[in-house]
Amino acid sequence: MLRLFLVAVFVSLTTFVQSAPLRITITEGVIEPLPYAAPAFIGETGASNELAIKITELIKSDLFGTGLFREVPKSSYISGINNFNSPIQYSDWKAINVQALLTGSVLLTGENLSVKFRLYDVFSNNELGKGLQFNSTKQGWRRIAHKVADEVYSRITGEQGYFDTRVVYVAETGKKGSRKKRLAIMDFDGANSNYLTDGSFIVLAPRFSPTGESVLYTSFETGTPQIYLIDVSTAKRTVLKNRKGTMSFAPRFSPDGQSVVYSLEQGGNTDIYVMNLKNSSSARLTSAPSIETAPSFSPDGSQIVFESDRSGTQQLYVMSSLGGSAKRISSGDGRYGTPVWSPRGDRIAFTKQSRGRFHIGVMRVDGSKERLLTASFLDEGPTWSPNGRVIMFTRETQGERGVSVLYSVDVSGRNLKKVSTRDGGSDPSWSPLGK
Amino acid sequence: MTKFGFYFCAILVIFLGGCSQNASAPFSASGTMSGSNAKFEGDASDPGSIAFFKNNVGDRVLFPIDQSDIDQSGKEILLAQADWLRANSEYKIVIEGHADERGTREYNLALGARRANSAREFLVSRGIQGHRIKTVSFGKERPVELCSKESCYSENRRAVSVVSNLNF
User: CATH number for the domain including B7?
Assistant: First the structure.
C-alpha cells in the first residue's frame, strides 16, 4: 500500500479572511457549475514537467467528473502562472470570471515526488484554506492528484471528497450464459485495476470492510455459494466458518468491522444472520418462511435494512440489529431490493423494479421521499461514495449480447455516467476515503 | 428419439402401470449446466445411463415468474426422475435452481434455492432418500437461453437435476 504523507501546512500568504465565502452548496436543485482555472502545475525541474502536466490533468478530470466545476480554458487567460510563489493577479482572473484558482508545483527528485498546491477565492482576493504539500513516490502520483482534488472539492463544497478511493467489483468477461467473473479492485476512476481472484469460480457481490483492508464476497468455489473474506493487499482468502446450511451469501460488515450480517439458506428458506468475526458465533435475526436477504447496517450499527418477500413481493424492511420485529418502509408499487444505508445515515439506496424497468432510487430511512435516480432495462446493486453524494451501480443491457457495466449517478439524480473499467463490471462496492 | 421414447414408455409401464403422452415427451439435452460431464454420460440407448436420464426422463422442471411451486407437467417430470433414481440406485443428483434475469442478484439466488428445494422435496415425497439429493442455486448467473424475452426467461426459470455417480 502506498503511503502518502500530509507533510505540512507550508505557507499562508495572507490571513484567511473572506468577504463572500466561495461555496458550492450541493442541493437538490440545478447547479450552475463553478467556473475555475487550474493552470498546469509548475515543474520545478525539467524532469518534473511531464508529471506536473499529468497531475494537473487528473485533478481537472476529478473535478470535472463531479459536474460541479467548469474549467475556464487556458486560451482565456490574461496572465498565466509561471512561478508558484508569485503573488496572484486577482484582477486578471476576475476579468475572465474565474471564481476559484488552483495553482501548484511538482518536484520529482529521483523516485521522490513532492506536490504543493494553493487554492484561491478570486473574488475575495484571498487564499481558500492554506497551501499544502504532499509527498510520495513517483508511482503514487495518481493518489496525490486525487488527494489534491479531494482538498479542492472539500474546501469549495464543505463536504468530504471521494477521489482518493477505490472500488472493488466483479470483472466480467466472456459470453452471457458462461460469463467469467473475477473479483477486481481499482481506483474509483478505473486506474490501477487488479484481479483478486482468477475466474475459476463464479464470485458475487464484494463488500469493503470499514477500514478498506479486506473484502467480503460470495464464491462458488466449493460448488455452493459460500462467504469468503479476502485481504486486499495480499489476496489471501479464508472461508467464513458457518452454521450448517446450504448456501450463505449477501454479506456485509457491521460499521465497527467486528461482525458480518448475511443470508443463510437452509432447505430452500433464506433468513438473515449475524456472525461475530472474532469467535465465529452467530445469531439468527429473522425467522420466516419467506426470503429475507440483502441486509445492510445503519452507520451507527443499531439497525439493519433488508429485503423480504413476506408480503408476497420484494419490499424493504428495517429492524433492530438484534433482530425482532421489522417495519416495512417501501410503499410504492413495484418490487424493492438491495437496500444500502447511506454513510450519513439519512437515506437508503435501493433497486426498484416497476413496469418492466429497473431503477436505482433513494428514500429516507422511514420510507418517505422516495426518488428514482435512474431507469433502464436493468439497473441494480447501488453502493454509496464515502461522502454519500454519489451512487455507483450495475447496469446491464438486454439481449444475447447484453453486457454489464458500472455507472455512477449523483444522489440528486444528475451526472449519470459510465465508470471506466477494463472489462465488463458488476456489483461495485466503494471504499472509505483514503483507502 | 422415437426409439428412446418407446423405451421410456416401457419403463413407465413397469413402474406406473401407464404411459402418459406428456411424461414421455423427450427433453432436449441442450444447454446443460455446470455439473454435467459428457464423458460419464454413457449412451442414451442405455436406460441406466445419464444420457438417457437427460434425453428421455427429462432433467428439468420450469417455473412461472417468481414462483417455486411445481406445476402438473413438472410433477410428471419429477415422477419420472423418481422412478429412474429408484431403478438406478448407484446415482445421486444435484438439483440446480435458476432464475431469469429479471430480478436482483441476491433475491434470485434465494429464489433459485427455493426452486431447487421444491424439486428436492417432491422427489423425497416420492421415496427418494434425502442423502441422494443435493441442491445448489445459481440465481441468474447461468441462463441457458440468452435472449431478453419471455420465451427465453421461461426456459431459464428452472430446476435441473444433474446426475452423478460420484460421491458428494
Answer: 3.30.1330.60
Query: A57 and A200 share a domain?
Result: no
- CATH number of the domain to which A317 belongs: 2.120.10.30
Tell me, yes or no, whether B29 lies in a domain.
no
Positions in chain A short of pLDDT 50? 1-19
Q: Which of B65, B67, B107, B115 to mutate to test the interface with A (most CBs of A within 10 A)?
A: B107
- Could you tell me if A162 and A150 are in contact, meaning their C-beta atoms sit under 8 angstroms apart? yes
Q: Give the Cβ contact number of residue B24 at 10 Å.
A: 21
Distance, in Å, from the CA atom of A99 to the CA atom of A97, rounded to the nearest integer, reads: 6
Q: How many CB pairs under 8 A join A and B?
A: 103
Cell for A336?
Answer: 424493492
Mutation target for B interface from A273, A293, A350, A377: give the one with most B CBs within 10 A: A293
Residue A126 domain-assigned (yes or no)? yes
Range of the domain at B45: 2-24+36-164
Q: Please give the backbone phi and psi of residue A150, each rounded to the nearest 5 degrees, phi first.
A: -60, -40
Query: Would you say the ipTM is above 0.90?
Result: yes
pLDDT value of residue A10? 39
Nearest to B136 among A223, A313, A351 (CB): A223
Q: Does the distance separating the beta carbons of A249 and B141 come in below 8 Å?
A: no
- Which residues constitute the domain of residue A371? 166-430
The series of mean pLDDT values per 10 residues for chain B, 168 residues long, is: 36 34 31 48 90 95 97 98 96 97 98 98 97 97 97 98 77
Same domain, yes or no: A99 and A177: no
Q: What is the dihedral of CA A1, A146, A43, A34, to 10 degrees?
A: -170
A200 inside 8 A of chain B by CB: no
